[in-house]
Amino acid sequence: MAVSTKTKKNADDKPAEKGGIQSLERASMLLDLVASAGPDGMPLTELSERSGLHSSTAFHLIRTLENVGFLTKKDDSKRYLIGSKIFMLAAGAMNENALLLEGTPVLAALSDKTGEASHLAVRSNSEIVLVARMAAKGMLQMSERTGAVRPAHATAIGKILFSQCNEAELEQLLSDIDFRAYTDNTLTSAAKLRRELTDIRKNNVAHDRCELDPDVRCIAVPVYDFAGRCVAAMGVSGPVWRMSEDIIPQRIEELKTAAATLSKALGATF
């Protein structure tokens, strides 16, 4: 007896155990499997085997995902890769709102652990814009884009974001900077900043050694997205008498752990 289209659709889309739609959950599982395969992709037979789905069920779901751009075939082979539509959706979600949504609890936990202020910043051309800041006592201080600009050459967050630029882009950025001296420790030339950026790239940690404020020291590390791009800088700052040379290595490890947590929330896979 033939099964009507309506009956078959209802059977395929029956509610899953947790109240979801089973076909969507299966499609999500297939996407996760393809993503885990990396640049080599995964063939239908393996996707069917690893998902536990019948080959015909897996085939129809994969064809649908391919039709809407969520999956694509590798060259002319039968191996499937994540499609461009997924990257478009992810890129569209990667804005300051996403950073705030995912970053706020991470900043709160970091400040709670270290007892110091934590902050998240992005780069807008040559300007370093503070997206959010968690005070040392755990109070979130939101910063508007206007009036929240920090000098790149005098801050750890700025140095981290500049260190991720290619040479051509960096050259342009350096030409836009007014190398103002905020303290006796401020880097006041492109040559000095270049030398420090070279050192920063070796270990992915930047320091503000009382360069913006004579009584405040800061460290910063990069935050990455699903494509491995640096999309933000995360930092910890505090008074020099607490951010001493003895405690800095511990703070760096705590900061790196927090940044890795946020990066994974944004899709990074390291």
TrEMBL record:
The keyword Transcription regulation applies. This is IclR family transcriptional regulator. InterPro entries: GAF-like_dom_sf, HTH_MetabolicPath_Reg, Tscrpt_reg_IclR_C, Tscrpt_reg_IclR_N, WH-like_DNA-bd_sf, WH_DNA-bd_sf. Residues 21-84 form the HTH iclR-type domain. Residues 85-268 form the IclR-ED domain. It comes from the Bacteria. It holds the Pfam family IclR_C. The lineage of its organism: Bacteria, Pseudomonadati, Pseudomonadota, Alphaproteobacteria, Rhodospirillales. The keyword NADP does not apply. PROSITE patterns: HTH_ICLR, ICLR_ED. Keywords: DNA-binding, Transcription, Transcription regulation.
